Structure formats: structure tokens, C-alpha cells
Amino acid sequence: MYHLVVTACLVTAPTVCADRLLPTPEPLAETDCTNGASARIAAWADLHPDLVIGSWTCRPTGNLPALDLAEIAPGVLAHAGQAQPLSAANGGDIANLGVVIGDTVAVIDPGGSRAIGERLYAAIRQITDQPISHVILTHMHPDHIFGAEVFSEAGATIIAHHNLPSALDRRAGTWAESIPRQTGALAMLGTRAIPPDITLAARQEITLGGATLRLDPVATAHTDNDLTVLHLESGTLFTGDLVFAGLTPSLDGSLTGWLAWLSQPPDPPPQRIVPGHGPVSLPWDQGTAPLRAYLAALADQTRAAIIAGEAMSEAATHVGTDQRGDWQGFDEINARNAIAAFKELEWE
Ligand SMILES: [Zn+2]
Q1: CA of 11 to the centre of ligand 1 (A)
Q2: For the sheet containing 157-161, what is the strand order?
Q3: How far is the CA of 70 from the centre of ligand 1 (A)?
Q4: d(CA 144, ligand 1 centre) in Å
Q5: Do residues 185 and 13 touch, judged by C-beta distance below 8 A?
Q6: Is the CB of residue 316 less than 8 Å from the CB of residue 342?
Q7: pTM of the model
Q8: How far is the CA of 314 from the centre of ligand 1 (A)?
Q9: Which of 6, 10, 135, 280 could make an SS bond with 56 (beta carbons 3.0 to 4.6 A apart)?
Q10: pLDDT (tens digit per residue) in 64-111
Q11: Nearest to residue 274, comparing CAs of 63, 70, 119?
Q12: In 237-311, which ranges are continuous DSSP H helix?
């Protein structure tokens, strides 16, 4: 199987260039890849006017750079992102990504950039030529979803919580500037946020043939558009950022809603969870305990500060700080969480 790879440079910074992979829904032989290249490049360039496309090649699957995927249950694979804040060193590869293989393939979170999505696509293609039928977005945050366009081009249907499109619209402008500032422009070259094809307001099951995924949109918790994915055959629950391990949890929805979600263990009890960040396979109790302790402390200390008559700016200097422990990126994220918690709880 062969893949079209183009060299693309930023219009605004012509020395910032990277290889971009243009996938297809069907596997291509080398001659098909070569013969169709010009038309495909022209169509892709129309959608990426911020890029200048240079040379191209058709490369075999084995020659593509690929993410590491670990099998955590039969037919269930995961990529471990680095459990750190975004940086130039990690290039946005900080979220855990999932792959479920049945007769077709589903991706749970396509990664934080076009480049990461391409490397995930390559990793899947190094395992199977089966069609990639679905991409499920666990929530709106860029480190989880900015690779979606790669899989849309590969023919997948993109599925998300019904609140995701409006939430993404509200943030898109901010993120277009802030993410490249953190990761570097090269890491985000060619990245374009795309809306989902289908949104869900209630549970839905997807059958891939030999694998069944149960998708559950969740009430506002980490964000207002969290969605969990349960692989029924193995009992593997992809929680997205409803569970953090290692990287400091970021509150972008509702603290009380998040604690409420954590207080009701999933039914049926999962065999393992794949959190949004941290180790890719954890038991429910062990995987959620540090998060639960942190969020409970955040709520308790915020309520105490409000009762003591503190201003928000004062509370933000100390609320949660005794929870630092081994959390990565703690000081900056916790300070933002303290403000979000204060705004939410001051009206209780
Ligand atoms: Zn998130």
C-alpha cells in the first residue's frame, strides 16, 4: 500500500516546511498513488491556503513515521501521549489515543495536530488495511482532536457530543494563536479544526463487526461536551479527560458536575480505563483516586475561601496548592482551576 506525501511550507514563513501525508479511503498501489497525485494535491491545497505545496512522493506504508501503539486488550490499542503540558519538545503529543479494530477500525481521539493524526494513521496502516470507519472525539480540547481531518480524508465519520461544535467555535480563534505559540508553528503545520459529521445527545452503540462501542455523552464535567466510549467485548472504557493521571487536571466545565460523574462508578464496571492523560490502562478505582482527591480539595478549599470572604484573586493564590504532589504542570493549571472553581461555587 502506498501513500501520497507532500512537502508543505507556510505561506507566512516559507522556511517552515514539513512532510504532510494525504490519506485515501481505499488502499492504493504505487501506480494509483502516482497517477492520482496531481488532482489530490490540488484539492487538498484548496483547503489549506496557508500552505505552499512543493515536491511529492508515494511512499510504502512501512516507510511512514508512525506513533507507538500498545495492545491493551484483544483488538484494542492505545498510544500513550506524554503526560505534560503542551510544549515544543512534545509537539502536542500529550493525549492518550485509542484504536479499536473489528472488521472496520475506530479511532478514539485522533491527536493534537495534523502531524500526530498522520502518524496515528500510519501506525494503524502498519497493522491493518481495514477501512477506518469512525473517529470518536471524547471532547473539544485541541490536544485530543486536531488530527481529525486526516481521518476524515481517509473516509471516517467523525462523531462527537452534541455540544462540541458550538464549544469549538467559541474557542477556535483563541486556539489558532495559542497552540502554535506553545508547540511551535512547525508542529501544527497543516492543522485544521473540522466539525464532526454526527453529534450525539444520547447513548449510541456502533458495531464495527466483531467489536461494539457504546458511546455515552456525559453531563457537564471536565467540559460541557465529554463523551465516553466503552468497548463492550473487553470492558475497556475510554474516559477522555474525565480522568487525568500524571498531568494536572484542567477544569473547563463544572467542578460539581465532574465530582458527581466520578461518584457514580460506570455500569457495568470496566475491566480497565484509558484516561485522557497518563498510563493507557488503569483500574477504575486506582485510576480515578488521585483526580477525585484533587477535585474534592479544590471544591472544599474554594468553599472555605468564599465563606471566609476572600476575593477570587486572593483565593487563587492558595486554593489547591497543597495538592501539588507529582502532578505535571501543576502551578499554572491549578491557578486557572482555582479561578474556575471560585466562579462556579460563589453562587452556590
Ligand atoms: Zn481536555
Answers
A1: 31
A2: 70-73, 76-79, 97-101, 105-108, 132-136, 157-161, 198-200
A3: 22
A4: 7
A5: yes
A6: yes
A7: 0.97
A8: 26
A9: 6
A10: 999 999 999 999 999 999 999 999 999 999 999 999 999 999 999 999
A11: 70
A12: 255-263, 284-307
